[in-house]
From TrEMBL:
Residues 6-234 form the ABC transporter domain. Keywords: ATP-binding, Nucleotide-binding, Transport. One of its GO terms (molecular function) is ATP hydrolysis activity. Gene3D superfamilies: P-loop containing nucleotide triphosphate hydrolases. Belongs to the ABC transporter superfamily. This is ABC transporter ATP-binding protein.
């Protein structure tokens, strides 16, 4: 498994006159579960969209394994699996047919891998139903299966627990921690839920109004509550506008 480092180097995204992302810098180590935590509208999806090449930064550089996503996109993106916003699924195909389709696109995925992934995301027999009949949580599980299919070395997941039930959230958490800590997969997730991120992540960056206001290891958070204090502070400030 390739070991993937992610670097945001003074990245800014300007839309109109507003800095949606405002000079953010951080580095994610290989095999780390890194969380981007922030209230609604803080800029999480924008940061993840830039990382996966869906949007270009106005300034600064994002590197995956040293390759610039802006200048060397093919090399930077080759080991990445991602779900940003709604997974891109074919509604009139079954879950299984969707996976076969994505497996063909990514090349080296065999039937056994598909079966393993179906077991892992827990879709069971529903995998043979049409996606249009799926609940939000089932679509999320299928989207995750799609992102994991080609065994990416960097997983980028925007609000991955959205729509999952508590058992699904726990399974996802255990899986992400296992692939990160045992196989060295780098995991980058976003969420607005502190408690969930605290259970999942090794390290958390708090983003507010496009700026990183704190980066902290979760273990040091458990010992003192500064991260929670900081998060509540920024979310309360945000509510007040
Ligand atoms: N294409 C765009 N044009 C104008 N403003 C945008 C655009 N995309 C995002 N924004 C604004 O940028 C800010 C950050 O949006 P973003 O979706 O990145 O936040 P988020 O942290 O992912 O929020 P949420 O938790 O609600 O998904 C918001 O104020 C949003 O309205």
């Amino acid at each position: 498994m390739k070991k993937i480092t992610v670097q945001f180097d003074t990245v800014t995204k300007k839309i109109g006159k507003k800095n949606i992302i405002d000079g953010i810098s951080f580095t994610i180590a290989p095999g780390e579960v890194f969380g981007l935590l922030g209230p609604n509208g803080a800029g999480k999806t924008t940061a993840l969209r830039m990382l996966t090449g869906l949007m270009k930064p106005t300034e600064g550089e994002i590197r995956i394994c040293g390759y610039s996503i802006q200048k060397d996109f093919e090399k930077a993106i080759q080991h990445v699996g991602a779900i940003i916003e709604n997974p891109d699924l074919y509604m009139y195909l079954t879950g299984y047919q969707n996976l076969i389709h994505f497996a063909r696109m990514s090349g080296n995925v065999d039937k056994k891998r598909i079966e393993n992934i179906i077991t892992l995301v827990g879709l069971g027999e529903a995998i043979h139903d049409k996606v249009k009949t799926y609940s939000l949580g089932m679509r999320q599980r299928l989207g995750l299966a799609q992102a994991l299919l080609h065994q990416p070395a960097l997983l980028v997941l925007d609000e991955p627990t959205n729509g999952l039930d508590p058992a699904g959230i726990r399974e996802l958490r255990q899986y992400l921690q296992k692939v990160a800590h045992e196989e060295g997969v780098t995991v980058f997730v976003s969420s607005h839920l502190l408690a969930e991120m605290e259970l999942l992540c090794d390290r958390i960056a708090i983003i507010q109004k496009g700026k990183i206001v704190q980066v902290q290891k979760v273990e040091s958070f458990v010992q003192n509550s500064t991260l929670e204090d900081r998060f509540l502070e920024v979310t309360t400030m945000n509510q007040k506008g």
